[in-house]
Amino acid sequence: QNAALRRGVLVMRHGERVDQVFGKSWLQQCLTADGKYYRTDLNFPSSLPRRKDSMKQFECDPPLSCCGIFQSRLIGEALLDQEVTVSSVYSSPALRCLQTAQHVLQGLKLNQKVKIRVEPGLFEWTKWEASRAIPNFLTVAELVEASYDIDTSYRGNFPLSSLVPSESYEDYGKRDGAAAPLPPLFAFPGVPGVILIVGHGSSLASLTRALTGLPSRDSGDFAQMVRKIPSLGMCFCEELKDENKWQMVNPPVKTLTHGANAAFNWRNTIMED
Amino acid sequence: QNAALRRGVLVMRHGERVDQVFGKSWLQQCLTADGKYYRTDLNFPSSLPRRKDSMKQFECDPPLSCCGIFQSRLIGEALLDQEVTVSSVYSSPALRCLQTAQHVLQGLKLNQKVKIRVEPGLFEWTKWEASRAIPNFLTVAELVEASYDIDTSYRGNFPLSSLVPSESYEDYGKRDGAAAPLPPLFAFPGVPGVILIVGHGSSLASLTRALTGLPSRDSGDFAQMVRKIPSLGMCFCEELKDENKWQMVNPPVKTLTHGANAAFNWRNTIMED
């Protein structure tokens, strides 16, 4: 069957986030005395979106690194190369996920054609938030001002106000796991094609197991599983139409493996005697 | 002094090479039974330049990975952002260096304006070549056919035929080190600006120490120093015109630090029970 006609759900994790490389205090490394952002390493993004509240809020909702943008764009280009038809895109409200969705769509040359639906229900298991609070996400208005292709008419299936800090595994399962399987959560369009869901490591594990009818894992196994999921890790579920069932199959594109790059201090390395 | 008017020499190491990520047998992973190239991971380049001799020759002269292209482009864009005027570019004949030069120039929006001069004298210390032979580099004709912006009129200062396999450290020094300091090797143009030299880890250490008058290191220290140089590691030498001397200073752009990304096996990670 032609990949373009397949009805499928592609769930992917966001790309490399700045705090993954530069630590929790990444923002302090990049602020001048009068609070202006500048990059101290070329892997920091060249600028940050404008926000009405404090820049400080980016600490709980960090952006992609330049490498994360590269990863996202590359996956989008590979999907285009495989002629995968993405008919709709849902993203976690986390900035790193929205940016991943945006750059995947750019790679697919679908930006401005397919708009991103911000779905609060896709946010990470809140127990894993270091701040023990729900981050102040950028508003739809702020995202649009920063040139993100957002579907402004979409109302989240799970409202932002219902996200609870440090939620139990059971509560997380109610919005993202076995108790909330995909078909009712996401409106499948009448046309064939792939629904792209950009979320967190947790999304890959919970959404796809729920959709294919696998039982949810206990929370310890779940945490261990999620830790193994790299940037742009992907799971793909395909519909078996006659059986009204979904199965997990190989994603339409390959995995992405690359090495790390260390900071370089010419003074200590080249000059020392 | 304005960076654009500075007379300087910027020496950089090439970007991430495929064999660094996928090992020496990378090409075997990417060939069909009838010898056609395809990528088995998205970090492999989408295609390889055409060459008259065997594809097998790429094993001794590997290309950049997609991540290496990203790194090179990012550095070029950062140099443009800092308004660095690159007046000429010299590259090692190794494919990874030529590709790095090409993508840095694209980031600088200087491709087609500044042509790459292929300088065999910039090749790595040949003792470090695993094959114990000089690789069959792509010819200038093959590079031009593959759309590389090559200065076809340039004749290497150190002819390719003079490169000796497994050369001694002393012989290496004669073409790249203290015995061959930069000014006679590279023709400084009459105009101010930066000469970009794309080479290997060894180039950073030997060329810049020679230019600034530092003594060369013994071969053990040299090897240890070179091992610390990351992809796109840079050294910058600036002219002190009144004193007719060169000094090593901070490069015009920051370093590039990013994390690794692991391959992802959805079957073992998500499906296992």
From TrEMBL, chains A, B:
GO cellular component entries: cytoplasm
SUPFAM superfamilies in the record: Phosphoglycerate mutase-like
Example GO BP: negative regulation of T cell receptor signaling pathway
Name this protein carries in UniProt: UBS3A protein
Top-level taxon of origin: Eukaryota
InterPro entries, A to Z: His_Pase_superF_clade-1, His_PPase_superfam, Phosphatase_SH3-domain
